[in-house]
Structure formats: C-alpha cells, structure tokens
Design goal:
Elements (H helix, E strand, L loop, with lengths): L5 H6 L5 E3 L8 H9 L4 E4 H4 L2 H14 L4 E7 L5 H11 L3 E6 L3 H10 L2 E6 L2 H10 L3 E5 L14 H8 L7 E4 L5 H10 L3 E4 L1 H4 L8 H9 L5 H8 L4 H9 L6 H12 L10 H7 L4 H7 L24 H23 L3
Parallel strand pairs: 1-8, 2-3, 3-4, 4-5, 5-6, 6-7, 7-8
The structure holds flavin mononucleotide.
Length: 340
C-alpha cells in the first residue's frame, strides 16, 4: 500500500511515522535503525552534548542511511542551543524539530535556512503559534504521552480531532501511540503522521538498559500510579516557581527540579494530594494499598503505549507490525463497509 500523506511528501519518507526525541538515548545508531525502515529517525541534540558532537552524529547517520531524519532541539532544555542550530544549518539536515519552550527566538533563522521545520507542542495554541511563525508541520503531544505536561494539555485523540480543523500545516500525533489501531485512529482523526516515543524504547536497537525494557514489557497502562503520573498536569504554582529559578542555577540542577514538577518524579506522593484529588478520582498509592496485588508500577520512563508492548523486538519488526497491522484493518474495514 502507498502510505502517502502530507508528512511523507514533506519529508520524502516511505511511512508517516516519526521517531520521538530522546534526551540521552537519541543517538545516530538508533535514528539510523528507524530511518532505514522507511520511518523517520530522530537525532536528539542534547544527547550529543556539544555542537561538534552533534555534527559528528549527523555525519555518521548520513553515512549509515540516505533516508531522511530530523534533529530535535529542545528549547530551554538543550545545552549550547545556538551552536546546535548552527550545526544543523551548516550540515543542511533534512528537518529540524524544535520542542520544549517557545521557538520564537529561533524562528527567523530557521526560516532563512530553508530547512524543513517541525515544532512539537503540547497544546493546540502552541501549535497554531508555531504555524504562524513559519513551522512546516507540528507534532501535537497529548496527555497520554510521556514527557513534560502543560496545564492546558488534552488527551491525545481529543487534541488531534480538535486541532485538525484549526491548523493548515500537517499534524503529527504523539502520545500513547504504538499499535496499528492507534496509528490508524490518529490518521482518521486528522493527523498526517504519528510519533513514537515509548513504543520504540522496547526495541533491541534502543540504547536503554535491558532492565528498563523488561519493565516496559511488564507494565500495564491501567496502573493507578501511571494514570496519575501521565494525566495530572503540573501544579501551576510549582511550575511558576521552577521557571523563575531558571537563571539562578545550572542547567543540570534546574532540569532536576523541572522534572520533579513536570514528571512528578521521584515520587508523586510529594505532590499536594488535595490538588490531585480535584483532578482525579482517588489517589494512586491509596488504591495500591487497598489492592496490594497491583504492586508499584514498574520503574522507567514510559507512557500508556506500554500496553501495546509484549516483547522486545527490532525497530524493523515494530514498524512492519504497525504498517502491516494497519493495512489488514483497512482491508477488513473496506470489505465490511462496501464503499461506493
Ligand atoms: C527517555 C525519554 C526522553 C525524552 N526526551 C525528550 C527530549 O529531550 N525532548 C523532547 O522534545 N521530548 C523528549 N521526550 C518525549 C518524546 O519525544 C515523546 O514526545 C513522547 O515519548 C511521546 O509519547 P509516547 O512515549 O507515548 O510515544 C522523551 C521521552 C522519553 C521517554
């Protein structure tokens, strides 16, 4: 089947599937494994630590595959940010993906470079703003995904369906996607492609420890702690305080406090329970105490997409399973529906 969408046309890739950004593990080897399948690999600039390191990663990735890839630069979170952009411009990468905080400061330079620009945002407003600044496509991440949360963020499928008529540029759906049904579901809701974080982490090529991969295989999406962790947005007061601290401490120190507020690590019980109770019915740890068979949630960074992972496979197998599975569903549906 021809998987042509506005995203495959924009990036000149075979499948409308993108690798997510992974601070620390978004290496050229991992990105090459993804790009070789016909999906789009992603180099995460912060993984290379320096602009020189990023340049080397880009060159190695290019030697490994001629297929397109993106470079993620997470604004406000990635070190040496100006140098990272320069490295991308000089290497004339196929696409730059900005994420994190507002991209306004860099918009003009990205537009002038002529490089395809994708911005990842957590809300429809941020995506519309990026479109106005000149982004060629947007990744819209819903609450179902792993990562920093925004107080106005919606669940993935609500976000996509709501955003689709409001945006003109292609939309890539992110958050909790990882099987043929969620792949097709996102496209039917109006997305032009999907974005995989968790689903790619339990692959053989992902440079994560085997222990974490096994935890992802074991994990269930309906664990109360995971539900609480993913769906509860940060407390506005704590979020405002951590933002104020940005220029007073080192980036590393600040990121730790930011993660604590945004990801509610290391233990969400630190978070004011009265606030949580307003947001969710019940409290995860109390439920675990009442039903000890639930146990604590397996450790590791992952989202509801853990529910689609039952073994550690190769990147190629994952992409093939997604594509073939989706094609089978489409075939079955087209027979059932007897389209005119
Ligand atoms: C280990 C890990 C590191 C991540 N690092 C970044 C990052 O540096 N920049 C970024 O924009 N997103 C980062 N993300 C978020 C993912 O790119 C993606 O938005 C998210 O995983 C999508 O949700 P999913 O896991 O349900 O697919 C990270 C996710 C994980 C799991």
């Amino acid at each position: 089947m021809n998987w042509r969408t506005r995203l495959t046309e924009l990036l000149d890739c075979k499948y409308p599937i993108m690798e997510g950004a992974f601070a620390g593990i978004g290496t050229w080897e991992f990105a090459a494994a993804v790009s070789k399948t016909g999906a789009v690999g992603c180099l995460t600039a912060s993984t290379s630590k320096t602009p020189e390191g990023l340049r080397e990663e880009i060159q190695k990735l290019r030697k490994a595959t001629k297929n397109p890839f993106t470079v993620n630069i997470s604004i406000g979170l990635c070190p040496h940010i100006d140098g990272m952009f320069e490295a991308c411009f000089e290497e004339d990468v196929p696409a730059i993906e900005t994420a994190g905080f507002r991209p306004d400061e860099y918009a003009e330079r990205i537009n002038e470079s002529g490089i395809t620009w994708i911005h990842k945002g957590a809300t429809v407003e941020f995506c519309k703003h990026a479109e106005k600044l000149g982004a060629d496509a947007v990744v819209l991440v819903g609450l179902d995904g792993y990562g920093f949360k925004n107080i106005k963020q919606l669940p993935t499928f609500t976000s996509i369906a709501w955003a689709a008529p409001q945006l003109n540029v292609p939309i890539i759906a992110a958050g909790g996607i990882g099987d043929p049904r969620t792949f097709l579901g996102a496209l039917f809701l109006g997305a032009d492609g999907i974005y995989l974080g968790t689903a790619l982490m339990a692959t053989k090529e992902c440079p994560l420890s085997d222990k974490i991969k096994e935890n992802i295989v074991k994990a269930q999406p309906n664990h109360p702690d995971l539900i609480r962790e993913l769906l509860a947005p940060p407390i506005p007061k704590d979020f405002a305080e951590v933002l104020k601290k940005r220029d007073t401490v080192s980036l590393e120190e600040w990121l730790i406090s930011m993660e604590k507020v945004m990801l509610k690590h290391p233990d969400w019980k630190d978070v004011d329970p009265t606030y949580i109770q307003q947001l969710l019915i019940g409290r995860g740890s109390e439920i675990v105490e009442l039903f000890p068979s639930l146990g604590t949630r397996p450790k590791g960074p992952f989202s509801f997409a853990c529910g689609y992972i039952d073994r550690i496979i190769t990147v190629k197998e994952l992409i093939e399973n997604l594509v073939k599975g989706a094609e089978e569903i489409l075939k079955r549906k087209s027979e059932e529906w007897e389209l005119p």
